[in-house]
Amino acid sequence: MTIHRRLKELDLDLPPAPKPAASYVTVVEASHLIFVSGQGPLVGADPVCTGRIGETLTLEDGYRAARLSAMNALAALDAEIGLDRVMRIVKLTGWVSSAPDFYFQHRVVDGASDLLIALFGENGLHTRCALGVHVLPFNIPVEIELVAALKPETAGEES
């Protein structure tokens, strides 16, 4: 089953691929790995929510923001190489802008992890780091970065 078919089954549509907001590229392929720059809960260039989890936003708000951030990362991957070239998700890093007394960053980042597992199955299981930070660009509550492995028959080819 293709990832696009799985997205349809889950009633999800990939957003347009995000554009860099500063001096960097969104996706870089190196050998058999592909790296996706940090993505936030944006629609186009606009944040869908702002603020800190545990302060102005709830854990549930953060979970949804992490899920949308992961959708944006997938949209960037799809635009650059196509999702069917992805063999597995290797690593996810999630930064959560959170109140000083909020200790559930890992539950917020589950919004991204749960989506990847739902789409890629066992190949969506990944290593992960969930970090609490004071503030993120544009005052977004979550930023997600991905590393994925490419299928062997396409590893190392230039896009």
From TrEMBL:
It comes from the Bacteria. It holds the Pfam family YjgF_endoribonc. Residues 14-148 form the Endoribonuclease L-PSP/chorismate mutase-like domain. This is Endoribonuclease L-PSP. It comes from Caballeronia sordidicola (Burkholderia sordidicola).
